[in-house]
Amino acid sequence: MRKYYRIESGRIVPASDEESADIVMMSAPSPEQRGTLIKEYELTEHTIASAFDNDELSRIEYDDDFTTIVFKKPKNYAASDNFQFRVESFGVFLFNDWVLLLTDSEIPLQDERRFSRIDSLNTVVLKLLNYSIFHFNEHLKIISRINDELEQKLRTAMENKYLLSMFSLNKGLIYYVSALNSNDTLLKKLQLGRSLNFSELERELLDDIIIENRQSLQQAEIYANILTSMMDARASVINNNVNSLMKTLNAITIALMVPTFVASIFGMNVEFPFSLGVSNPYSFWIIMGIAILSVIIFMFFWQSKK
After folding, report:
1. Rounded to two decimals, what is the model's pTM?
2. What is the 3-state secondary structure of the chain?
């Protein structure tokens, strides 16, 4: 899907066609649309593929007619993902008088909170990078909430699905740490490079973006370390819960075996002392009393051992 936007009064607004557009966004282009990009804008197949390659590291390349920036951002999360958090790449191609944006999922360029005070194409690029970091921060908050909920459930439940969900969260955090590290390397190159000719305000914005990215990286590393260090402890908690349950079941089993043993003795076809037999009208109650007394003695013994 291809959409056109232009810069107006410091905001990004829709444009009617490509001629009046300052920004062209193509989301999830088809093979035919990729072929059009190669013919119209003289992009190479490798450059276009790198913008959609989730394993591609963040990078910047300077060509004669445009500058290529490949940056990492989180994939949009849905409930059906089952705690699988992943990252994806998007490509920004900065020409002399317009910007081409290639992405698998649409970026809300009309969000005035994230894309405001825009007075140049360089600012558009920086705002796109800043939006990616903001997206990471939002996902880290979601991961933190999910982790707290799973921790509460693991305190009482013994099901493996909660522990497996935590493994998925930890795996996603590792992807996030790798992506944020890659983004940090690219931002440092932008800070040191002079090819884009940033103004003073744009350099201040770039410095803020670098700080935000490093804070996100530190937060992701902290969450990953906490999850990694707590996995064994939570697995031990589950094992302890299972052991406690097995001890209780064993106590119940033994408690049932004691009166069964008493009843089995008196079920033998032999003569019993103390006139315990069919002729004694109190035999049943005496046997029941002995069985109940044996259970009481066993429970008292069990409690004293605990």
Report:
1. 0.75
2. CEEEEEEECCEEEECCCCCCCCEEEEECCCHHHHHHHHHHHCCCHHHHHHHCCCCCCCEEEECCCCEEEEEEEECCCCHHHCCCCCEEEEEEEECCCCEEEEECCCCCCCCCCCCCCCCCHHHHHHHHHHHHHHHHHHHHHHHHHHHHHHHHHHCCCCCHHHHHHHHHHHHHHHHHHHHHHHHHHHHHHHHHCCCCCCCHHHHHHHHHHHHHHHHHHHHHHHHHHHHHHHHHHHHHHHHHHHHHHHHHHHHHHHHHHHHHHHHHHHCCCCCCCCCCCCCCCCHHHHHHHHHHHHHHHHHHHHHHHC
